[in-house]
UniProtKB/TrEMBL annotation:
Domain Rapamycin-insensitive companion of mTOR residues, every copy: 979-1051
Protein name: REM-1 domain-containing protein
GO-annotated cellular components: TORC2 complex
Location of the region described as Disordered in the Swiss-Prot/TrEMBL record: 1194-1214
Residue ranges constituting the REM-1 domain according to the UniProt record: 27-95
Protein keywords: Coiled coil
Length: 1255
């Protein structure tokens, strides 16, 4: 019968192998078909490029030969792929070579014989350690080969044999035993069987046994990874993990910490009963930072729902994190390093909605402590906390701050601070919309905790660095308040009552002057910001590309611009005599050496009198002044072109640009440029780069890579860009074939990407001319990085408001959608998504009707944009996209959206992940997380058109969403799937309410009140956060703001009836609250206790004394005396520490209580005289059976502590609902004074797994 079963097993395996081969063949064919689709899309895109080129008014805008060559290559690849598909189709479903290998029975017998031989060797007591190691390795090899060794032997027989190798004196044998045990864990039943064999898992040994400890820990992790195995983990394992974690220098500490976190998430009851939650909280303030992040994520998970929150002590565990802030008040306990780690932990809590709500527990007690710590005059503590607040609100310390501090001034020079702040450009960083919304509630919380008053106290600090930083922080936070908070809060904050009170305090002159200086700073900064340009300076291309040294249209201070305007007006109206004198003073007419010219006067002339066209023409005709200056700019004169790039050469570039602008504006100037060698030489120098031009001179190339980097040669492209801004300038560029030279440069194959980037960023694209054609050529370059850069630059052109972008820009971007590089096509999607905020751009894109199937999920962003316009809705409806996608979102995509949004928010908020995460080009979330736009939602885009609203009503989806919210607005949800469903429904309703059409549906249904009720009363903190963001979406319309105001939620005031998607509760106490919970992590909450008594008659007085001292080692107060007592007994009576009976009692106690790893090692050393022979192992089992009474009897515990007489040592067993195996625990072990018998301490009883001792 066994042979028949084995043969059937072999047949089943052969069938599975054949089935696997079929699946692999089908997968290979599927992959090839996908590649064919990609090549067809590339071919279609290339054909489209040819069509666009043929219909262009300028003629061919691309090189036809290259595009046709690409089409031909695509056809070849398609043919090759078709042949491969035919090859796979003709392959047989079965491997012919494997057909003769049917006599599998021979292999079976061989393996059976090997297994039996191995078992026989393991039973042999005389086997050498080397032979034991070989036997274990052979068994491991068999396990890896056959997968399940139970085919060849009974698992209990093998596990019984391993009882002896696990206690071998050789560490390599023990390590390999743990490794073999790991391979034998197939299911939870195997784990139960292993637990019954009382294996000694050695995790507490020192670092000399690292291999053994590592394999033991891997076995524990295998238990956790096995389905339902985590429920079988004994508490003794948790205790030993905790012991290792408490040893900060242990190499396995990070792995044990990770294991404990995983256990806390999957079996929080087990970890809490062992005090593991406290260890997780403590480890957050011990470092290193990557462990703090991991622990914080676990804490946030446990805090989220009431089911897991009950295992965190409501008023105790939080104290562990904020204890470092409290210690600042003490001179003795204060630790700067501890404070930094605590601030990082607090910052990580603040970066999540759950954590922030937890910090508001007990009327914001933790936040109040943090704020009050700022008032203490400890410089290092203030520095740490100020930096934490900067990081929390994602504010950057200005670059000039360090320079100001290096001046080492002993007091605040408020004028220096104002001057530096004025120099700083107003450049608001683009932030994710939801980050700003989250910052609004944070500002409100800190305002109510008195942060601004505390910062004003810090502004009086004696150290300038701290005082400066506090003032800057107040200024930045006030800016955020003006932007994010309702007007009543802004008025309260901006009034700064404490500061004004100090400024009018004539009793304290120092305080009054300090307050006046601070007020002066705020006033000046406010004026400066009002007069500065507040538009975002989105020139990301320049930040990445450092080829261009100067940007001519640089933002200047208002005062400087006013001075220049006055000079220009005065110079424009200057009399002739004064004008002639100025020309003479420049030394241009008297000396040809440009270093002796007065360039300041030259600049004043060009920006003043020579802007008068008539005077410019007269100067050109009557003097050589203009000709001399132009000759200075000729490339081959080696004057301007040889000047090195330095800070003091900026004027040369500005004067050249102004001069060319003035010349192109007049007829005489155009004639001068036409006749001068200036443009001719630029053209010749550019053609030097073309190997087919015939004028190549590698030794004297003006535009060599080295000269472009080090000299002002690169600024000739800036001059070309000035000429490309006007029709007359374009004609000059055409006349001297400069455009022809640029075309040639775009086709170079020598890797001159620096030239391509400079050309792209220098040309002007407002006029429909060669500039746009050159850009289109570069966008279809053979180099991926060049195409990506050119596509990226289109985003800058879009934001800068270039002319007719809806026409040519959208067309260029639609072509990039077919680019073979995923980075380019993805970037094109992102830019088109941004461009579609403009209805004209959206209509232009819809009319082009691009094929987006090859983009997969990346195309959804654009398709949703189509959905938001009437024309696009009709276009998508024609091929059934709308209803199909609507059903997908209703069933699946709504929940996918929740996970995407939570991932984006986590990356945007998280202190650690956002910095350390490596970039991934294929990760769609990366770009979305950096975008300030809300991730588009199907239902939100659908309701932007009347047709979409009609479809939503007809389908009845909104009615379903509303009913679901009402059902769970007053009900606690425990199921994870229900929580996810509720979040998805909330996001869908929020996006519907964010549109002008959709908000009417919400008001009609009256669902806004239910969402607010859910936000205020839900016991699941992440749902409160979701409701908060959803209410922000509803605040996106004026109707929504009015409805929210009626329900007690306020929105910021903006001029001209603008609305913004931010809202905050009028009373934060109603919203930021967590209902008090009962702590379930205590042993007292268990209902059933099973008593096991180890009577006095089992041990003599010395043995009882040893056991009591062993128990006292778990108490750090009594451990020192107990260790000395044990050492004394060992010296006087060493024979007791070789007793197996006593060892069993020690095992029970050690498995019941928490011991530090040093104590465990000490106990292990005490009993190192025990010889673990086969007889010893069997004796241990016998003593365990006789010592433990497994008959349960019901007992009740009335008091939280149970004492015990000095005569008996009581051991009790706990019944756990989630376990099938037997567990034991000590109800109480008392440390008794030997003299008077007074009870010193009652130890807290905990669980223990029978047979699992962790030494």
């Amino acid at each position: 019968m066994d042979d028949f079963d084995n043969l059937m097993d072999i047949k089943d395996k052969n069938f599975l192998a054949h089935q696997k081969l079929k699946e692999e063949k089908a997968a290979a064919i599927s992959k090839l078909q996908e590649k064919i689709k990609i090549e067809e899309k590339i071919k279609a895109g290339a054909e489209l490029m040819l069509q666009v080129s043929e219909t262009s008014q300028k003629g061919d805008t691309i090189e036809r030969s290259k595009v046709e060559q690409r089409i031909e290559e695509a056809n070849k690849k398609i043919n090759q792929l078709m042949k491969k598909i035919e090859f796979f189709k003709n392959l047989p479903d079965h491997k012919e070579e494997e057909q003769p290998k049917k006599p599998r029975r021979i292999d079976h017998k061989e393996i059976q014989a090997q297994v039996e031989e191995c078992l026989s060797n393991l039973e042999n007591e005389l086997l050498e350690p080397v032979q034991q190691l070989e036997t274990l390795n052979k068994l491991i090899g068999i396990c890896r080969l056959v997968g399940d060794i139970r085919i060849f032997t009974h698992i209990k027989t093998l596990l019984d044999s391993l009882r002896y190798t696990v206690v071998s004196k050789t560490k390599e044998v023990r390590a390999n035993t743990f490794r073999l045990l790991r391979y034998l864990v197939y299911d939870k039943n195997i784990i139960c069987t292993m637990l019954a064999f009382n294996y000694d898992i050695s995790l507490i040994r020192d670092n000399k046994f690292e291999i053994e400890r590592t394999q033991a820990l891997k076995l524990v992790r295998k238990f956790i990874d096995t389905p339902k195995g985590v429920k079988l983990i004994p508490q003794s394992i948790v205790y030993i993990l905790i012991s290792v974690i408490e040893q900060l220098d242990d190499k396995l500490r990070p792995l044990c910490m990770e294991t404990l976190n995983e256990l806390a998430i999957r079996n929080v009851k087990l970890v809490a009963s062992c005090g593991g939650i406290k260890i997780i909280f403590s480890a957050m303030t011990e470092g290193p930072m990557y462990l703090t992040e991991m622990n914080m994520l676990t804490v946030i998970y446990l805090l989220d729902t009431e089911k897991t929150r009950n295992y965190i002590k409501p008023e105790v565990d939080l104290e562990i994190i904020i204890s470092a802030f409290i210690d600042v008040y003490s001179k003795n306990n204060y630790s700067e390093e501890q404070l930094k780690l605590s601030s990082k932990a607090i910052l990580a809590l603040f970066k999540s909605w759950t954590g922030m709500t937890y910090l508001c527990f007990q009327d914001k007690r933790a936040i109040n402590i943090i704020v009050e710590t700022l008032r203490i005059s400890r410089s290092e503590a203030r520095k740490t906390l100020l930096q934490m607040i900067f990081d929390l609100f994602q504010l950057k310390v200005p670059k000039w701050f360090n320079e100001l501090i290096k001046s080492k001034k002993k007091s605040i020079d408020i004028n220096s601070l104002i001057a530096k702040k004025k120099e700083e450009k107003v450049n608001e960083e683009k932030k994710l919309h939801f980050i700003n919304h989250y910052h609004s509630i944070l500002l409100l919380v800190f305002k109510e905790s008195g942060l601004f008053e505390a910062l004003l106290e810090v502004a009086k600090d004696e150290q300038p660095a701290i005082a400066y930083k506090a003032i800057i922080l107040i200024d930045e936070l006030l800016m955020l308040c003006n932007k994010l908070l309702p007007v009543r809060h802004t008025i309260q904050l901006c009034s700064l009552p404490t500061l004004f009170k100090n400024a009018t305090n004539f009793e304290d002159e120092v305080l009054r002057h300090s307050a006046n200086d601070t007020l002066s700073y705020f006033n000046n900064i406010k004026i400066n910001k009002a007069k500065s340009i507040t538009a975002q300076q989105m020139d990301e291309i320049e930040k990445k590309d450092k080829i261009i040294l100067y940007k001519i249209n640089e933002t200047k201070g208002r005062t400087q611009r006013q001075i220049e305007n006055v000079k220009m007006i005065m110079g424009y109206n200057i009399d002739e005599t004064h004008f002639r004198n100025l020309i003479t003073d420049t030394q241009v007419l008297t000396d040809k050496d440009f270093t002796k010219w007065n360039w300041n006067i030259i600049q004043d002339l060009i920006k003043g009198p020579l802007m008068n066209h008539k005077r410019l023409e007269e100067t050109i005709k009557t003097t050589k002044f203009i000709k001399r200056i132009i000759s200075f700019y000729r490339p081959l004169s080696h004057q301007f072109s040889d000047i090195l790039k330095k800070k003091n050469v900026k004027n040369y570039v500005e004067i050249g640009c102004e001069l060319i602008t003035n010349l192109v504006a007049t007829g005489e100037g155009i004639r001068l440029l036409s006749e001068n060698k200036f443009l001719q030489q630029i053209s010749e120098c550019l053609l030097q780069l073309d190997p087919f031009s015939g004028i190549t001179d590698q030794n004297q190339q003006i535009f060599s890579k080295e000269r472009m980097e080090k000299t002002l040669t690169s600024e000739y492209f800036t001059f070309i860009g000035i000429l490309s801004k006007s029709i007359d300038g374009i004609k000059l560029l055409e006349k001297f074939k400069i455009f022809h030279a640029l075309y040639c440069i775009t086709e170079l194959r020598n890797g001159r990407e620096d030239l391509i980037r400079t050309i792209v960023t220098s040309l002007d694209y407002n006029i429909n001319s060669h500039s746009r054609i050159i850009l289109s050529k570069i966008m279809t370059s053979t180099y991926k990085h060049t195409r990506l850069f050119a596509t990226d630059y289109l985003q800058y052109l879009l934001r800068s408001g270039v002319n007719d972008f809806w026409d040519w820009g959208i067309r260029y971007l639609s072509i990039q959608l077919y680019d073979p590089a995923i980075e380019v096509s993805k970037k094109a999607v992102i830019i088109l998504d941004e461009a579609c905020n403009n209805s004209k751009n959206l209509e232009s894109l819809v009319k082009l009707s691009p094929n987006l199937e090859h983009l997969g999920e990346n195309a959804n962003v654009l398709l949703f944009r189509f959905l938001s316009s009437t024309l696009g809705f009709q276009y998508l409806s024609d091929f059934g996209f709308v209803e199909k996608k609507m059903d997908e979102w209703f069933e699946i995509k709504n929940e996918d959206y929740v996970m995407k949004m939570e991932l984006i928010l986590e990356r945007a908020f998280n202190t650690f992940t956002s910095k350390n995460r490596s970039p991934d080009v294929n990760d769609v979330m990366e770009e979305e997380a950096l975008s300030s736009e809300i991730l588009p939602h199907f239902y939100g885009e659908l309701t932007k058109t009347p047709q979409g609203c009609s479809l939503l009503e007809r389908k009845g989806h909104l009615k379903h969403f509303v009913d679901f919210i009402r059902t769970y607005s007053n009900k606690n949800i425990m199921s994870t799937s229900k929580i996810l469903k509720l979040k998805s429904v909330l996001w869908a309703v929020g996006h519907i309410g964010s549109t002008k059409n959709g908000i009417s549906f919400l008001i009609e249904e009256g669902i806004v009140k239910n969402i607010i009720q859910l936000a205020e009363n839900s016991t699941i903190l992440s749902i409160k956060g979701t409701c908060f963001f959803v209410l922000g979406l509803i605040a996106n319309t004026s109707k929504g703001c009015i409805k929210l105001k009626e329900c007690g939620w306020e929105t910021p005031f903006l001029p001209y009836n603008q609305v913004v998607s931010y809202c905050v509760p009028r009373e934060t106490s109603k919203f930021l609250k967590i209902p008090k919970w009962d702590f379930y992590g205590s042993i007292i909450n268990n209902d059933f206790l099973y008593d096991i008594n180890i009577q006095k008659k089992m041990y003599d007085d010395t043995e009882l004394k040893i056991l009591k001292n062993i128990g006292s080692l778990s108490n750090h107060i009594l451990s020192n005396a107990s260790s000395k007592a044990l050492s004394k007994i060992r010296i006087e009576k060493p024979e007791y520490f070789s007793s197996v009976k006593l060892l069993v009692g020690v095992y029970i106690i050690m498995s019941t209580y928490h011991y530090r790893i040093t104590a465990r090692r000490f106990i292990y050393e005490l009993f190192e005289g025990v010889n673990y022979t086969r007889e010893t192992v069997l004796s241990i089992e016998e003593y365990l059976k006789s010592s433990l009474n497994v008959s349960p009897q019901k007992s009740t515990i009335e008091n939280s502590q149970t004492t015990q007489s000095t005569n008996d040592l009581t051991v009790s067993k706990l019944k756990q609902e989630d376990r099938n195996e037997k567990t034991i625990s000590l109800v109480s072990t008392c440390s008794v004074d030997n003299n008077n018998g007074v009870v010193k301490q009652v130890l807290k009883p905990q669980h223990v797994q029978i047979g699992f001792n962790l030494d």
